[in-house]
Model the fold of this input.
Amino acid sequence: MSQKKQDYYPFLLALVGGLLGLGVLISAMQLIYYQDSKHAIEAYAQEAMDFTLQVNSEIIDSLQAAASLNIQDCSTENFNQLKKIIWNHQFINDIGIVKHHLLLCSAMWGRFQPEIILPPIGYTNATGFSKIKNNGAIFPYHLNGNMTLKNNILVVVQPKAFDTLKRLSNRFDLKITAKRANYTYFFLRHHDATQMSDEFPFQTQDIRRCHPVRDVCIEIRDYQAGVARLSNQEWWLVIMIGSVFGIVVTVFGLHFLRSSDSLSNRLKRAIKKRDLYVEYQPIVRLMDQKIVGVEALVRWNDPKYGQISPLLFINLAEKLKLDREITQFVLNQALSDFKNVFKQNADFTVSINLNKSDLITTSFYTLLVKQLKKFDVEPKQIVCEVTERVDLNLEDLSEKINQIKALGCRVSLDDFGTGTSNLSSLSGLAFDTIKIDKILLKHVTQNQFWKDLVIAIIALTQEQKYKIVFEGVETQAQWEFLKEQIDGAFAQGWLFYKSMSASDIYELLQKQINT
Done:
């Protein structure tokens, strides 16, 4: 990816994140609003049904009461009886007498001259109740309403009887109908369908509830069941909040991904997945360059960053408190790689580098005992290398060294010359070998001071009866100088061999046997 694309990459991700955040917020609001609409419609349908049944009960009760009077004419006495029925019912407006579909008279208006022709019957249910629409032109006082006819008795419902349902609704369309006929008792259109509810799904919600006994059904439609109910100002607020939320989440997500892709986290994953590997640098006898052992060196080739310096990732592992896991991995791998060599050559050794964490806890010692038994390795064939730079007081260090030596393993002081220790201060420690750091050999053939210093160190180590391994021998001149100064020493360095795989070591050992 080019640098220019990389520069735009976070911006594009933030933009996409803002859009996704907006989409998530709108989807969440849509779900909440849709569920809210469902519950609101259910509640409104029940209220509408209860109210309709109350009106319906008054109609039936009024018709039955009027029929029981056995009225045959439009007398004043009959009008008074009918008025009493009206007064006892909240939603009844008038009661009239009908003959041959002509309205002869009503309790509230008296006799009509001429008689009024009623509109056609709209619907007759199974119990004989006929429904007639009052178009507002029947009575002198023009009002619309529903009329019910049975046995020549006409009951007129209050024109404003269903106004209560208008107050119950704040955004719903309501229709009260008969069950099995296309007849509407009452219809309320509160809102026209909005443009959004027409163009987008899930913006309307419908319900139909019918009474199990009465000839009544309630139909309700909510045209603002989802985010269509939002005003323009609310939409701007949603867009702002959703976009900001998405961008913030994206930024935090990018930060998390970058942190998870840091070298520290990649090292954690590499250790967990066993993506580290071990190479081995031969240790040779100084006089004839015969391989007598190897030093196990952990390596890490990261897919993203490539080959990582051991100094870098081992120091990082120490900070992350993962160094013990690395030591355990190296020990297990080395014993597994050379278990056959150990059996063929009892003098062959493998050196394992220890760190402070291995020395201040018992976990390494316990693992060492376990692995020696598992691979059936003689303890003397394992050399535990302790760097001079380890931050541990001499008393504690001496205790750990003696514990490892009591097991039968050997202990070596690694990188001597890079710290502040001197041989006299280390004389009380039971090291088997002193490994002279390459920094002391770098100028030994060019500078008399360094030459004298190395000669003095060799004399002191021989006096203390330490074995010596010279590290970092890289030139023929260095090798020639060391051979002149000491017999029976050992060396390792690029002059002889670089670090390599276990299989390459096997080939070298086989050639050494055959020569």
